[in-house]
Design a protein that fits this description.
2 strands, mainly alpha, about 5% strand, about 50% helix, globular, two-stranded antiparallel sheet, single chain
């Protein structure tokens, strides 16, 4: 169930064009992951790091595609964390590192939006569907 803290459902919101057009339309992955569901996902997957990485990626995708937040806002925070930890790759970050990055991403999102972004998965779903439909009109699609 979307938003359930015991057995959460994660969904992907993608374009369904008749002809495959990789990279042309926006996509949102892992919609349904949140503070309420991340622990259940970690337990189900048997991998805490995986769950927190999914969550930080969701915040970034949702922020960029749905909320229109510049990608560099998130990328700069990720780069700064990797430099601080002395690692080169995202995969070298621990679950605890990613938990902190999720908090950072949420703060950055709220700063960019001038308030709190929605954590309601149903509202996120409706807004994500709208954003993916709008992406049919972006310059990459022409």
């Amino acid at each position: 169930v979307l938003g359930d803290d015991k057995k959460p459902l994660l969904v992907s919101v993608r374009s369904g064009a008749v002809i495959s057009m990789p990279g042309m339309m926006d996509t949102i992955l892992n919609l349904g992951i949140s503070d309420d569901t991340v622990e259940a996902i970690a337990k189900e997957a048997g991998n805490e790091r995986f769950a927190w990485d999914c969550y930080r990626r969701f915040i970034q995708m949702y922020g960029e595609v749905v909320e229109g937040i510049d990608a560099h806002i998130y990328e700069d925070a990720l780069t700064a964390l990797k430099e601080k930890k002395g690692v080169e790759s995202d995969t070298d970050l621990s679950a605890d590192d990613l938990k902190g990055l999720v908090d950072t991403f949420k703060k950055l999102s709220n700063e960019q939006l001038g308030g709190n972004w929605t954590t309601d998965p149903r509202e996120q779903l409706m807004r994500a569907v709208d954003a993916v439909f709008r992406s049919w009109l972006n310059p990459r699609a022409f």
